Amino acid sequence: MPGRQSRRSLLAAITALPLTGALSACTGDDSASHRSASTSTSGTKGTTTITFWSALRGSQEVVDAFNKTHDHIQVAFEQIPSGTQGGYLKLSNAARAGNAPDVATIEYPQLPGFAIDGVARDITSMISDDLRSKLLPQSLGLTTFENRTFSVPLDVEPMVMHYRKDLFDRFGFDVPTTWDEFAELARKVPRTGGGRRLTLFPTDSFTQFAAWSWQAGAQWFDTSKGAWNVSLADAPTRKVAAYWQRLIDEDLVFVNSASSRLADAQIGNGLVLTRLSGAWDAGAQMNARPEQKNTWRIAPLPQWDPARPALGTHGGSTFAVTKDSRHPEAAMEFIEWQVSHPDALKARLSSGASSQYPAATGLIPVGRKAFDASYYGGQDIYTLFEEEARKISDGWTWGPRMTATGNVMQDAFARAGSGSGTVLSSVRAAQDGTMPDLKALGLATTQRST
User: Fold this and answer.
1) For 174, which DSSP code?
2) I want to staple 162 with a disulfide (CB 3.0 to 4.6 A). Which of 62, 115, 208, 275 is the partner?
3) Is 228 helix (H, G, I), strand (E, B) or coil?
4) Residues 362/365/367/368 CA torsion (nearest 10 deg)
5) Other C-beta atoms lying within 10 Å of the C-beta of residue 64
6) DSSP run (H or E) holding 54
């Protein structure tokens, strides 16, 4: 069992668990790992029942498929709300009370915080070499800190460009391949009349801005030199901020919440020609706007330098075994099946609302076959996702309190959208708002020049 260390050490900064619940979270502890009894918590002899919480679409279908084919393990599923004040708050409260589920879905940006808080168990020794070999290295890297792994990736979502092919064809527009071409196109779109804009700068999505910055080479957080080094406004991020500020200042993009009724109207009425988001959003678009079938296509995200293609991710989820799990081995068996078995992906896609790009790349043919491509005019979007996933840059690290960091950034984005502040001042405000949270955790921190 790893020794307990001060939070001020580098290892403690992300991997050593807090004193509360530390013993139950160590995978080598007999009191935790050997509690995976052969008798069920529900009383059925020979069956182990585990609990699973998730907000992901298609999870009920996945659980149903697992339960039909596994007699020795059964999963009791609870659909929880998405968002920081929904499922994550519930998970945190349950962990404080000592009754977190066996398996929880945690998105990449939130994982470091749940690891530091001891909610997500260190599962390094529980992941088989076979499973590791099936996962896209970049995805596994996002769940591994100082060589210790805290969750298993389900999907990894390269950022792509969804575009209105019908409108591009009508106005004779070429699909942009660089950010310079994207800006040139943004200046042409308003001339078509009708109040159209090329895209939306979302004031409620720090992860989208993070993906753009990641693509440009930004490194908002790193754990070199024995501390959490924070630089939310480094040179690549400043370049991205200046780019979007020009588009905003020239009134070439909409600036509002992507989850608002206004955004729904902008997209539904054909006023937005492109949507920049993760691969998962293809399924969400189908589910939200069936009447726009065959008007959308998907293309690679524009590049800064086509000779050196790079991407960040937007979205993606992982499965963690919690510190409170009484059946960690059974939980890991369920997780491995979820992320790597063809029947699991088929079940999730059968919901008709998912287009996840699997972190287990061997499932790509399954996803391609199961996904109804007619919405996108028969386009093979999974081959595109496969090509784009190879461009995801290694080395990105999310911070320990991304929910708080993101809230500050998004509030500032909203003010900038109304003319009070800028995109750059928003990310600087997020850095200023992040530091007190990290220091309150007892983490060693540094700030780099911004």
Assistant:
1) P
2) 275
3) strand
4) 150
5) 14
6) strand 48-54
What is the pTM assigned to this prediction?
Answer: 0.89
Q: Cα dist. 18→4, 95, 114, 441 in Å? A: 8, 13, 11, 10
Helix (H, G, I), strand (E, B) or coil at 320: strand
| CA dihedral sign, ordered 100, 16, 106, 33 | negative
In three-state secondary structure terms, 124 is: helix
Domains belonging to the chain, first-starting first, are 10-150+317-355 (3.40.190.10), 159-313+395-447 (3.40.190.10)
Nearest to 247 by CA among 418, 423, 420, 406: 423
Read off the amino acid at residue 347.
Answer: A
184-240 pLDDT tens trace: 999 999 999 999 999 999 999 999 999 999 999 999 998 877 789 999 999 999 999
Contact assessment for residue 398 and residue 111, using Cβ atoms and an 8 Å cutoff: yes
The CA distance from 367 to 371, in Å, is 6
Look-up of token digits 């784009």: 388
Tokens of 90: 């519930």
- The CA distances from residue 9 to 23, 199, 279, 396, in Å, are 19, 44, 37, 21
DSSP string, 406-424: HHHHHHHHHHHHTTSS-HH
Q: What is the pLDDT of residues 59-112, one digit of tens each?
A: 999 999 999 999 999 999 999 988 666 689 999 999 999 999 999 999 999 999
Q: Coil, helix or strand for 349?
A: helix
Coil, strand or helix at 296: strand
Radius of gyration of the chain measured on its C-alpha atoms: 22
Write the CB contacts of 14 (distance below 8 Å, at least 6 apart in sequence). Answer: 112, 115, 116, 145, 146, 223, 400
Helix (H) / strand (E) containing 431: helix 423-440
What angle, rounded to 10 degrees, do the helices at 179-188 and 235-249 form? 10
> What's the Cα-to-Cα distance from 109 to each of 71, 135, 359, 404, rounded to whole Å?
35, 19, 16, 11
Looking at this protein, which amino acid is placed at residue 66?
F
Q: Which two tokens stand for residue 370?
A: 């199961």
